[in-house]
């Protein structure tokens, strides 16, 4: 059981480390850091805009991280705020035209990375893999909230 646990942790860690390196390399073009990639790709799906609270929820980040990242991206001309007094938490956050181009580029590059990473998997194995990852993520999220059961 410990061997399976170590294998699981190492594999997840390696995937995460590799993805963060790829994201950092891709975001360098925009003078941004790797973590900005998740915000760009998420915001791209919400052309009508998205609130900071919803963005925080979807990206799994806290409000201070969202605020910091949106300020950086706004200064770079990739994001704009629309709404009540330009308050970050009440305003709608939208990608500018330049932000949309950047987000589209990042989405294409991320898609290519995933395609290449899974090139040796059949479509059936790929589907099972993603379903399994979603199940594990959901179960671990629940465990992190409730804690491990006592034996």
Secondary-structure map with pairings?
Blueprint: H1 2-27, H2 36-44, H3 52-59, H4 63-75, E1 79-82, E2 92-95, H5 97-117, H6 123-146
Antiparallel strand pairs: 1-2
Can you walk me through this structure?
It is a single chain. This protein is 67% helix and 5% strand. With 151 residues, the chain is mainly alpha-helical. α1 runs antiparallel to α5, α2 crosses α5 and α3 (52-59) packs across α4 (63-75). The longest helix has 26 residues, at 2-27.
Query: What can be said about the biggest beta sheet?
Result: 2 strands, antiparallel
CATH architecture of the largest domain: Orthogonal Bundle
Q: Kindly report the oligomeric state of this protein.
A: single chain
When the domains are counted, the total is 2
**Outline, from the CA principal axes?**
globular
The succession of helices and strands, N to C, reads HHHHEEHH
- What is the name of the CATH topology of the largest domain? Arc Repressor Mutant, subunit A
Can you tell me the CATH class of the largest domain? Mainly Alpha
- C-alpha Rg (nearest Å): 18 Å
What is the count of helical runs? Answer: 6
Mean pLDDT, all residues? 90
Q: Order of strands side by side in the largest beta sheet?
A: 1-2
Distance between the termini: 16 Å
SSE-based structural type: mainly alpha
Beta-strand residue fraction: 5-15%
Strand segment tally: 2
What share of residues is helical? 55-70%
């Amino acid at each position: 059981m410990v061997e399976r646990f170590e294998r699981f942790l190492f594999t997840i860690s390696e995937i995460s480390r590799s993805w963060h390196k790829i994201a950092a390399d891709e975001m360098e073009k925009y003078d941004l850091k790797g973590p900005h990639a998740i915000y760009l790709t998420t915001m791209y799906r919400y052309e009508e805009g998205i609130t900071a609270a919803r963005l925080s929820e979807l990206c799994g980040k806290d409000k201070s991280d969202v605020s910091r990242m949106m300020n950086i991206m706004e200064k770079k001309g990739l994001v704009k705020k629309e709404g009540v007094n330009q308050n970050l938490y009440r305003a709608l956050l939208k990608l500018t035209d330049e932000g949309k181009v950047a987000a589209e580029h990042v989405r294409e590059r991320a898609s290519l990375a995933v395609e290449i990473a899974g090139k040796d998997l059949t479509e059936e194995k790929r589907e099972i893999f993603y379903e399994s990852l979603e199940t594990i993520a959901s179960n671990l999220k629940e465990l992190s909230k409730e804690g491990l059961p006592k034996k």
